[in-house]
């Protein structure tokens, strides 16, 4: 029979009417650039995430770029992130002329390693005359970008504490974590997006809340910074044709905002569905021993609903490279996130990282496989995926 990795057509049936009427309203208004449809979505987004300000952007990548531009990140600066993420996270740092610094990941959560970060800052970096912590190359460390990978939040309490002695901002890559929750040390349940100084989200069609094309969101708590983001988004202009700064065209389309607003009410239910599917996999793989290591659920015991939002279901698989053709033969949709860690990408060879520099990230790239997890997946399909995997290990 076969099981697709993702089938967006199954969700469209339920949202078609809501999308049609909202899209029609945008056409009737002929207001395609910013305006009330975008503002309505930004407001709803603030309410959901719990942030003070949300600025709709043309993609997750552009939202990140806009945040870094609004901070004035450029040559002479450095930004720290993980080598085990989608390319955009590091690409934006490079594009602004800043130094990209990678720190290895923790093997269970696949998040950036707090211990490695602390060791890097303490052992490799020194403050300059102004007291700004600098990399060995002499660049000022401006920000850390942890990635809430695959749908669980990084431990931002621990990361913030490490950054606290320095003026280093924490910018969340929440592209894969809309709705994901974290229990702070103060005992507050917070969503991804309000755990640092600023954050960005992606509405790429395959993300948990997907647009009909590209779209993204930058969020923050400071009104002043939000105003900067709005400027950067629109060529640095407030009054038309008067430019305070050089920005870009990073505006979200009103049509995309309309589509997202129509789908938004379903998000919690979809995230529930993803978690239910993960539970079914956990049960199905329970007797496979160390052949399949299911994804970690680091915040499960904290009483959170959205402790994981399973943007992807990424498991470690013994003998992975032999498993892949077996899955293909059984028509089981699968993917590798990510086949090559960023520090070993050709375009970043100039950074001088060699193979072995980040063993955990490299190992994750060799050992993990993503299986179908989308909310509309049926129980019999999950059973089919599990049976195909079982037949590989229990020949
Ligand atoms: C999807 C994604 C992005 C970029 O989002 P786009 O909307 O595709 O530009 C950035 N970071 C991560 C981790 C992502 O998964």
How would you sum up this structure, described in words?
The protein is α/β, with parallel strands linked by helices and 395 residues long. The chain folds into 2 domains: 257 residues, Aspartate Aminotransferase, domain 2 (3-Layer(aba) Sandwich), CATH 3.40.640; 128 residues, Aspartate Aminotransferase, domain 1 (Alpha-Beta Complex). It contains 12 helices and 14 strands. Strand 2, helix 4 and strand 3 form a beta-alpha-beta unit. Helix 2 packs across helix 8. The model has no long low-confidence stretch (mean pLDDT 97). The site of pyridoxal-5'-phosphate (PLP) has 15 residues, from helix 3 and helix 4. The site of pyridoxal-5'-phosphate has 15 residues, from helix 3 and helix 4.
Features:
binds pyridoxal-5'-phosphate; 3-stranded antiparallel beta sheet; 395 residues; 7-stranded mixed beta sheet; 2 domains; Aspartate Aminotransferase, domain 1
């Amino acid at each position: 029979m076969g099981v697709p990795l993702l089938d967006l057509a199954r969700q469209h049936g339920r949202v078609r009417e809501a999308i049609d009427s909202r899209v029609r309203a945008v056409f009737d208004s002929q207001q395609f650039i910013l305006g009330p449809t975008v503002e309505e979505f930004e407001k709803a987004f603030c309410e959901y995430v719990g942030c003070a300000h949300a600025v709709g952007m043309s993609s997750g990548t552009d939202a990140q770029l806009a945040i870094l531009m609004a901070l004035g990140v450029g040559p002479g600066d450095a930004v720290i992130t993980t080598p085990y993420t989608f390319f955009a996270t590091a690409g934006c740092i490079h594009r602004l002329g800043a130094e990209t610094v990678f720190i290895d990941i923790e093997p269970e959560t696949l998040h950036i390693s707090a211990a490695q970060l602390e060791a890097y800052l303490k052992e490799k970096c020194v403050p300059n005359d102004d007291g700004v912590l600098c990399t060995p190359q002499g660049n000022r460390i401006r920000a850390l970008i942890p990635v809430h990978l695959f749908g669980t939040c990084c431990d931002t309490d621990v990361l913030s504490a490490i950054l606290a002695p320095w003026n280093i901002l924490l910018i969340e890559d929440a592209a894969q974590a809309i709705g994901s929750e974290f229990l702070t040390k103060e005992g507050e349940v917070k969503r991804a997006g309000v755990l640092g100084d600023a954050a960005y989200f992606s509405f790429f069609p395959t993300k948990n809340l997907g647009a009909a094309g590209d779209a993204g969101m930058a969020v923050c708590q400071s009104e002043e910074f939000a105003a900067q983001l709005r400027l950067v988004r629109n060529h640095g202009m407030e009054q038309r044709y008067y430019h305070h700064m050089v920005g870009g065209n990073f505006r979200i389309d009103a049509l995309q905002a309309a589509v997202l607003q129509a789908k938004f009410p379903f998000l919690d239910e979809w995230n529930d569905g993803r978690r239910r599917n993960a539970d079914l996999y956990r049960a199905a793989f329970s007797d496979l021993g160390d052949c399949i290591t299911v994804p970690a659920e680091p915040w499960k015991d904290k009483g959170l609903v959205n402790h994981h939002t399973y943007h992807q279901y990424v498991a470690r698989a013994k003998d992975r490279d032999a498993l892949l053709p077996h899955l293909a033969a059984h028509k089981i949709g699968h993917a590798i996130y990510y086949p090559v860690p960023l520090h070993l990408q050709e375009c970043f060879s100039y950074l001088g990282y060699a193979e072995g520099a980040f063993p955990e990230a490299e190992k994750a790239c060799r050992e993990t496989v993503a299986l179908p997890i989308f909310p509309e997946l049926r129980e019999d399909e999950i059973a089919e995926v599990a049976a195909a995997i079982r037949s590989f290990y229990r020949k």
